[in-house]
Amino acid sequence: MQTLEKASVKTRCYRCGSVVGTAEVCQKCGTAQPKVPVKGHVDLDIDLRFDPPVVSARYKTNPHYLLALLACLFFLPVGLVAMFKASQAETRIKNGDYTGAMKSSESAESLARFAIFCGVLVTVASVLMAVGFART
């Protein structure tokens, strides 16, 4: 059996599933095929029933919905912006804009972390102030 590196591999269109090979545009549906992003994860579905094997690439990026939701609990204004960015990342994934999806995902993550940091900071400051006023 040939190894995957030595076999000629055919790729499938991420939208319609037809074999596109190394073409930049799918001949069947006309969809531009994405290039592998610099950051992010790529899952390969390898179907070894065919010779050469058929490979389908699914690009994955984490939109950070859960982190953005947690950020809303800590600091609502920034948490809502993080939720918007996470939603924008999901929409861009569906539209095939993987680079934009990764940028939105990264900004959703950084905004959510900032909101959680601000929420923890305000909570600690409030507790310290309450303890200080209670002693006087």
Label the structural class: mainly alpha
- The overall strand count is 3
Instruction: Report on the biggest sheet.
Output: 3 strands, mixed
Residue share in β-strands: 5-15%
Low-confidence stretches: 1-9, 36-41
Task: Give the SSE string.
Answer: EEEHHH
Residue share in helix? 40-55%
Domains (count) = 2
Q: Averaged pLDDT, please? A: 78
What strand order characterises the main sheet? Answer: 1-3-2
> What Rg, in angstroms, do the CA atoms define?
22 Å
In whole angstroms, how far apart are the ends? 81 Å
Number of helices: 3
Q: Judging from the principal axes of the Cα atoms, what is the shape?
A: rod-shaped
In short:
The chain is mainly alpha-helical. Helix content is 50%, strand content 12%. The protein has two domains: 1-60, no CATH class; 62-136.
Could you outline the blueprint of secondary structure elements for this entry?
Layout (H helix, E strand, L loop, with lengths): L9 E2 L29 E7 L6 E7 L4 H10 L1 H20 L2 H38 L1
Parallel strand pairs: 1-3
Antiparallel strand pairs: 2-3
Helix pairs in contact: 1-2, 1-3, 2-3
